[in-house]
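PROTEIN DESIGN WORKSHEET
SECTION A - STRUCTURE
LENGTH: 154
C-ALPHA CELLS:
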C-alpha cells in the first residue's frame, strides 16, 4: 500500500491546474527558464551553452533553452502523474535529485527558485486558485529534493 502525498481532492485540483500549463509545455517551460536566468543571472552559470546569452529574446529563441524548458516540464509532469503514489513519485524525484547533486552540482536553492517562478506563471495565466492548489506539489518536490541533497552530503 503506497501512501499518498496529498489528499485525493488536492491531487485532482493540482492536476487540473498543471494540465492547463502543461498544454504549452515547451513555451511555458522556456518562459520559466528565461525568467529564472533573467531575474537570477547566477543560475545561468550551470549551463555552459547559456552563459553568453544576455537578452531574454535570445534565450527564448535558443533550442537549448527550449529543450531544457521542455525537459523540466516533462519531469514535473511525471511527478504530477504520481502524486497519489509516493513510491512512484519518489522513484522519479530521487534519481533526478541525485544527478543534480552529484554530477551537475546544482545548488538546491535553485529548485525553490524555479518552483516559485512556475507558481507565478500559473497565477498570471490561470489565476490564484491554481497557484494555491499547485503550491503543495512544489513544496513536496522541493522537500524531497532537499532530503536527497542532505543524503548526498550537501
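SECTION B - SEQUENCE
RESIDUE ASSIGNMENT:
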Amino acid at each position: 500500500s503506497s501512501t499518498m502525498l496529498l489528499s485525493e481532492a488536492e491531487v485532482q485540483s493540482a492536476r487540473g491546474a498543471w494540465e492547463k500549463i502543461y498544454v504549452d509545455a515547451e513555451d511555458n517551460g522556456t518562459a520559466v527558464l528565461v525568467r529564472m536566468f533573467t531575474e537570477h543571472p547566477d543560475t545561468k552559470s550551470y549551463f555552459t551553452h547559456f552563459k553568453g546569452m544576455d537578452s531574454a529574446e535570445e534565450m527564448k529563441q535558443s533550442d537549448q533553452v527550449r529543450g531544457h524548458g521542455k525537459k523540466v516540464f516533462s519531469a514535473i509532469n511525471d511527478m504530477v502523474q504520481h502524486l497519489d503514489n509516493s513510491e512512484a513519485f519518489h522513484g522519479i524525484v530521487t534519481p533526478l535529485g541525485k544527478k543534480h547533486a552529484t554530477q551537475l552540482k546544482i545548488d538546491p536553492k535553485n529548485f525553490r527558485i524555479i518552483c516559485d517562478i512556475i507558481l507565478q506563471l500559473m497565477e498570471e495565466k490561470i489565476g490564484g486558485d491554481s497557484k494555491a492548489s499547485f503550491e503543495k506539489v512544489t513544496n513536496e518536490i522541493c522537500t524531497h529534493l532537499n532530503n536527497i541533497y542532505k543524503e548526498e552530503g550537501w
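SECTION C - NOTES
The CA atoms of residues 79 and 100 lie 16 Å apart.
The chain has a mean pLDDT of 93.
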